[in-house]
Amino acid sequence: MEKVIPNIINSAVQKYEHSHKNMIRSVGVLYEGRISSKKQFNRKRSREIFELDDNGKRHMITYMPACKIPKLVHYKGVMKFVNSVDTGELKDIPRARKSKFDKGKYQQTEDCETDDLRPAVSVCYRDLESFLIKLAGLYLDIDSKRPGFLTWFGPLQ
Known about the structure:
The protein is built from 5 helices and 4 strands. The protein is mainly α. The protein has 2 domains: 4-84, no CATH class; 86-96 and 120-151, no CATH class.
């Protein structure tokens, strides 16, 4: 029990730690509630791996002697995965120039040119046509794996 079972469990845990399911679990923790910073994610990751004993010392959580529990993927690995997801092409919206209606918002000084009176906000948008084509492909793929997912137009009344 003390030699064979931990070897089997630890090899299964190690296999799981490198799996796609663990990556999805880690992304879920990253976006839990709202997107976490590196510090917040590492704190959550630590809480899942370590616990404090009665003396206040940290040690790895085990459910059986010498049996590990699966760790979340490191922050760097999770962010690499998140950044690799294709979200489509983002296009920049050029900054707006000052108009005669913006006099109350942007006060012009004598040494300031009108080109400098643009709001300091960067904005991007996604082309709707390409996004809808990608979304339609996703729905068709889901419907092929789960027949009946799409009800299409349903019965006409």
